[in-house]
Amino acid sequence: MVGSLAAQNARLQVTLPAREKLSIDTPQVRAIGMVSAKSTAELIRNGFPARLQFRLELWSAKNVVNEIRSTVLWDVIVEYDALKAVYRVVRVTPDKAFVLGEFKDIEGAEAKVAEAYKPQIKPPRKGEKSYYSVSLDVEAMSMSDLDEVGRWIKGELKPAVRGKKNPGTAVTKGLRRFVVKVLGGERLRYQDNSKVFTP
């Protein structure tokens, strides 16, 4: 993990399916303690939603050079709706975005984010030594990014949550970075690998 002491109790976990299901089932991913750290919670409360960008990879464990077999990406966004006084949690996958729930406090949102998730990834080849590697970047996102997600949930357009589009001007992006820095925000990175297994 790279980041501040405020997030020192946060952790990312990838858990293999049961032994008999290794070739047909997908692993579970959990992100624990990611949004309730003081600096992150303050950013969310002050109008800077947190974006958790996940990447799960399946690797073959070769004797010399390991090879990547498949990859899946998804985001989880936590925002504070000041009008409703609720924290909203949204999951964005490559083909859809949907609201996971609304919560009265950051602890409720944290509990939802920490629930185990089974991303759809191509299973390993039978008899091939393999392992899963999961990484997570946590950062504050701009309101224009969030507007894109909201419009996508309503079916209006494709989101720009993966940097394929550049919402906002250089001035607004610079101002956002300045405000995030003043409030103590930063990009945090976490990683976890499963043990090597043979389905």
Care to describe what's here?
The chain has helices spanning 38-45, 106-113, 143-153, 170-182, and strands at residues 11-15, 28-32, 50-60, 67-81, 86-93, 96-103, 130-140, 188-193. A hairpin with a 4-residue loop joins β4 and β5. It is an alpha+beta fold and 199 residues long. The protein is built from 4 helices and 8 strands. The strands form 2 sheets. It has a 6-stranded antiparallel beta sheet with strand order 6-5-4-3-7-8, sandwiched between helices. Strands 1-2 form a two-stranded antiparallel ribbon. The model is unreliable at 1-7, 159-176 and 178-184 (pLDDT under 50).
Quick summary:
This protein is α+β, with helices and mostly antiparallel strands. It contains four helices and eight strands; from the N terminus they run ββαββββαβααβ.
Can you lay out the helices and strands and say which pair or pack?
Blueprint: E1 11-15, E2 28-32, H1 38-45, E3 50-60, E4 67-81, E5 86-93, E6 96-103, H2 106-113, E7 130-140, H3 143-153, H4 170-182, E8 188-193
Antiparallel strand pairs: 1-2, 3-4, 3-7, 4-5, 5-6, 7-8
- Biggest sheet: strand arrangement: 6-5-4-3-7-8
What amount of the residues lies in strands? Answer: 25-35%
| Total helical elements | 4
Helix/strand/pairing class, anyone? alpha+beta
> What is the end-to-end distance?
29 Å
**What's the story with the biggest beta sheet?**
6 strands, antiparallel
Q: In terms of per-residue confidence, which ranges show pLDDT below 50 for 5 or more consecutive residues? A: 1-7, 159-176, 178-184
In N-to-C order, the SSE pattern is: EEHEEEEHEHHE
Quick one: overall form? elongated
Number of strands: 8
Mean pLDDT, rounded to whole units? 81
